[in-house]
């Protein structure tokens, strides 16, 4: 981070003596609170969890904590409100009095005001973390010093507050974060794809897409907007950006062993266009590409038992991710689906499943969405939990089959996150062996 730039901005005392209310006491919210405290703001954290204690305020000076359902008292006197990801502005707006709703910003927006390094920002429904990690890896391999984070890993505010140093900021950004951005402006911005997701958060698909497109809103003519060719008929870039536009269609690079499937060819091409924009050569990109090993829980081959392959795609938390995973295999596939469903038409999976999926094992929540759509086309069973479903599929499987965990759902009915779900899948496989 350029300390002279930070000094220039903070010397305006834009936060000194002003009340900043942080909504949400998760990692992102606490990171925002740390940065605001460093900027000499008066900080108040509000959270609906009444079990939180002042222990979370360690290192935050006289920061105030107020818990319980959102109310006017929590936001009284605020000059700015930082909404954590997962808290829509509409849940806060009724309690902010005369404060304009534009005063509600995201942690990403706040942090971006104090970061003048070139930014590559990646959004989309699927592939964000893989593409972010790929860009980070290639930058490191080429001798640069990147910071990779935001929605993925370390919040940007945490990096800024710690006086982090980097040549390039590689930022995975979600619709939650972008919806409350006003001035966020990346050098290269990528939209990987759009499919129904987070419709338990966004009011509809129009709102979801509009949030994603905010990644391009503040870009100028000398910056780059990278868009999927499959959306040419849906998107008119002149309506949402002034940036140069490049479309990607997955035709630039051959499939890589550690990045299987057409969807990863798309991710590679989008990553290349962004890195080319900030000055990397094709040779540097391809050298880094060869040594990238992928990310866990993303179509990850975790081993075989009796000739039956186990694939952990626990990060496949929506229907499009399942389609992408299925396209990576020839079959027979025994598919595990289940968890907290986030929206979409389950029957859209059927074309990719036909003549490939030998059996479907449903587990946990979501049965009411999957079973009606799939029961007439596939051998299907439901099980109380993942272990019972895996064991049932394994009992029916033969050497050469693939047991694929690509659940199309969030994991919070039974796990703390997709990582824990994937780890449990691996444990079950190891016990079978």
Keywords:
six-stranded parallel sheet, six-stranded mixed sheet, 16 helices, Rossmann fold, globular, 19 strands, alpha/beta, 32% helix, 3 domains, UDP-N-acetylmuramoyl-L-alanine:D-glutamate ligase, Protein-Tyrosine Phosphatase, Chain A, 433 residues
Description:
The strands form four sheets. Strands 7-8-6-9-10-11 form a six-stranded parallel sheet. The chain is α/β, with parallel strands linked by helices and 433 residues long. It folds into three domains: 17-99, NAD(P)-binding Rossmann-like Domain (Rossmann fold, 3-Layer(aba) Sandwich), CATH 3.40.50.720; 110-290, UDP-N-acetylmuramoyl-L-alanine:D-glutamate ligase (3-Layer(aba) Sandwich); 300-432, Mur ligase, C-terminal domain (Protein-Tyrosine Phosphatase, Chain A), CATH 3.90.190. The model has no long low-confidence stretch (mean pLDDT 92). The chain has helices at residues 3-10, 27-38, 72-75, 89-92, 107-112, 128-141, 156-161, 175-179, 205-213, 262-277, 282-290, 319-326, 350-353, 367-374, 386-396, 418-432; strands spanning 19-23, 42-47, 64-67, 80-83, 104-106, 119-123, 146-150, 168-172, 188-191, 224-228, 244-248, 300-305, 308-312, 333-337, 340-341, 357-363, 380-383, 402-405, 409-410.
């Amino acid at each position: 981070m350029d300390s002279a730039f930070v000094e220039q901005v903070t010397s305006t005392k834009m936060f000194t003596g002003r009340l900043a209310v942080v909504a949400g006491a998760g990692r992102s919210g606490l990171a925002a609170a740390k940065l605001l405290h460093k900027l000499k703001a008066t900080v108040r954290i509000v959270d609906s969890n009444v079990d939180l204690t002042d222990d979370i305020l360690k290192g935050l000076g006289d920061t105030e904590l107020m818990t319980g359902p959102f109310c006017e008292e929590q936001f009284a006197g605020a000059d700015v409100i930082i909404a954590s990801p997962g808290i829509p502005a509409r849940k806060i707006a009724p309690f902010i009095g005369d404060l304009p709703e534009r005063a509600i910003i995201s942690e990403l927006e706040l942090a971006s005001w104090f970061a003048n390094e070139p930014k590559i920002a990646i959004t989309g429904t699927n592939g964000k973390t893989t593409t972010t990690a790929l860009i980070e890896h290639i930058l490191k391999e080429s001798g640069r010093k990147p910071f990779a984070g935001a929605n993925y890993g370390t919040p940007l505010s945490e990096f800024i507050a710690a006086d982090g140093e980097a040549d390039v900021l590689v930022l995975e950004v979600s619709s939650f974060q972008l919806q409350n951005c006003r001035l966020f402006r990346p050098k290269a911005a990528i939209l990987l794809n759009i499919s129904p997701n987070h419709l338990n958060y966004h009011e509809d698909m129009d709102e979801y897409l509009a949030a994603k497109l905010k990644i391009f809103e503040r870009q100028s003519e000398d910056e780059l907007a990278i868009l999927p060719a499959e959306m040419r008929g849906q998107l008119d870039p002149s309506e949402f950006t002034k940036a140069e536009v490049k479309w990607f269609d997955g035709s630039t690079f051959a499939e890589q062993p550690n990045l299987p499937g057409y969807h990863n060819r798309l991710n590679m091409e989008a990553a290349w266009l962004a890195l080319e924009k900030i000055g990397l050569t094709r040779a540097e990109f391809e050298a880094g590409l060869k040594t990238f090993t992928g990310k866990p829980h993303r179509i990850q081959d975790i081993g075989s038992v009796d000739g039956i392959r186990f694939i952990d795609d626990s990060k496949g938390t929506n229907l499009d991710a399942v389609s992408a995973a299925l396209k990576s295999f020839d079959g027979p596939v025994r598919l595990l689906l289940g968890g907290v469903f986030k929206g979409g038409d389950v029957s859209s999976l059927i074309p990719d499943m036909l003549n490939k999926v030998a059996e479907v094992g449903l587990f946990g929540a979501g049965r009411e969405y999957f079973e009606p759509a799939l029961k007439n086309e596939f051998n299907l069973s439901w099980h109380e939990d993942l272990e019972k479903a895996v064991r049932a599929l394994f009992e029916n499987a033969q050497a050469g089959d693939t047991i694929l965990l690509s659940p199309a759902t969030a994991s919070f009915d039974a796990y703390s996150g997709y990582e824990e779900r994937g780890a449990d899948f691996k444990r079950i496989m190891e016990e079978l062996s």
